[in-house]
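Thread: "does anyone have the structure for this chain?"

Original post by V.I.:
We have the sequence but no experimental structure in hand. Need at least a predicted one for the grant figures.
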Amino acid sequence: MAFRDLNPESARGRQAEARRNDKAVLEAARDVFSEHGAGAPISAVAERAGVGMGTLYRRYGSKTELLQRLCLLAMEQALEAAGAALAAPDAWTGLAIFVRDSVEMRSGALAALAGQVDVTPEMRATAERGIAAVSQIVARAQRDGSLRADVTPLDISYLIEAFSRRPPAPAATYADEERIVRDRLLTIALDGLRAGGTTPLPGRPPTRASYVGRWDRR
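Reply from O.Q.:
Generated one for you, tokens below.
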């Protein structure tokens, strides 16, 4: 899913071109860094985005700045999806919408960067808001009995991460099939979250300390 331009109508001429280039850079950076980690050369981002290095560096002064912006935007889009989920009249529908929208926008793909990026205070605060929002979505679905009681908010977050990881874009011939397979497996996973599941979840639940601690620089 593409990063959205919040004010597409307000840009004209060079400003519109700059926004298009920025969007292309962000989408390319998400693909490159989620596939190869933070060590991938920034020249690979420019090449995939179809822009020159000068264009990229005029917008982002360093690779670190680009990575931090990328992570922050992904979290902000996930928060928007969480807001839509909490506004849904039905708790289970809201949960399913949140999971599907987050997977579609690949909000968890950047988990591959954990421990490789300096986390800014803004990133940390946004992450805290995200964890709180997922907790509300889970609690709401468990209160009405639609979500199994042994599922935790971090189970949902890790599930989204798992489905957000994608191999390099397949050949056009197989792109539709890849999407269909992903949707089938995601439907199976969502059904496994429903209340009434008969197989107890193995092991202890993931901890907040380990989930957040991954992002501390090693």
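V.I.: this helps a lot. Residues 63-87 form the longest helix (25 residues).
O.Q.: and The two ends are 30 Å apart (CA to CA).
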